Amino acid sequence: MYAIIIGCGLVGSRVAAMLSRDGHNVAVIDKNPEAFNRLPPEFDGLTLVGMGFDEEILKNAGIEQADVFAALTDNDNVNIMASAVAKNIFGVKRAIARVFDPAREKTFKALGLEIVTPTVLGAEQVYSRFVMGENSAHLYISENDIEIMEHVYEPVGKVERVRDIELEGEIRVVAIIRKGKSFLPKDDEILQKGDRIITVVTVSALHKAMKTFGNVESKRLGEK
After folding, report:
1. Residue 50: helix, strand or coil by DSSP?
2. Which residue range forms the structural domain that includes residue 125?
3. Contact by Cβ (8 Å): 71, 65
């Protein structure tokens, strides 16, 4: 895969490093040459100084061969403009834009762009900590009306196996992280203390899920 990333900030540099580490070809564009210092020494991709919506810079970066394009600067307008140029002028199939203002998300999705909204993601994470406690988290996926939830298992209550959590069509355990390793569990998998349980939950079943995990962690959540 050939990827072009606009913005070599904390997010852009990390994504670029991950892609390069996994063997993908990567080009990173940033208006500040010092930003490339954030890239690790082993990064073997291309770096270019310039604006991400400059067509000449994009051509030099190999935009016509790019499989995916991501604009990850801290400026919504730059990200949208650069992504629109990549998709509409150069025909890149996948263009991802980082957008901080949630109110603009639907408008930019209508342009055919994939939008990542850190403001919403951050709010969801903080909300989940308020509601579910420090050992839980959830992420709302608006287009599909589902939540991806994570909980730490404590052997309290009636939940002992994966099937005790799942509800057909509403709650599905998709993975368990145990002692630093993740796996896809069967429904008769016996849960162990400290397991991080990753579930997919429909929004309509969210309260059921919260009740289920409330039972799992009732002792911890009930402490004052």
Report:
1. coil
2. 121-222
3. no
Q: pLDDT tens-digit profile of 117-164? A: 766 555 555 555 555 555 555 555 555 566 777 778 877 666 788 888
Give the span between the Cα atoms of 129 and 42, in whole angstroms.
Answer: 36
Residue with the two structure tokens 């070599």: 8
Q: pTM value?
A: 0.60
Q: Tell me: do 108 and 213 sit in the same domain.
A: no
Domain end (from 116, 137, 170):
116
What single letter denotes the amino acid at residue 26?
A: V
User: 115: Cβ–Cβ under 8 A, 6 or more apart, which residues?
Assistant: 96, 97, 99, 105, 108, 109
Spatial contact of 53 and 85, defined as CB atoms under 8 Å apart: yes
Could you write out the DSSP letters of every residue in 180-206?
A: TEEE---TTPBP-TT-EEEEEEEGGGH
- Are 57 and 10 found together in one domain? yes
Last residue of one domain, picked from the residues 81, 116, 151: 116
* DSSP code per residue over 63-107: GGG-SEEEE-SS-HHHHHHHHHIIIIIS--SEEEEE-S-GGGHHH
The predicted-structure confidence for 162-218, as pLDDT tens digits, reads as follows 888 887 778 888 889 998 888 999 988 998 888 888 888 776 676 676 666 654 443
Claim to verify: residue 156 and residue 105 sit in the same structural domain:
no
Locate tokens 């993975």: which residue?
175
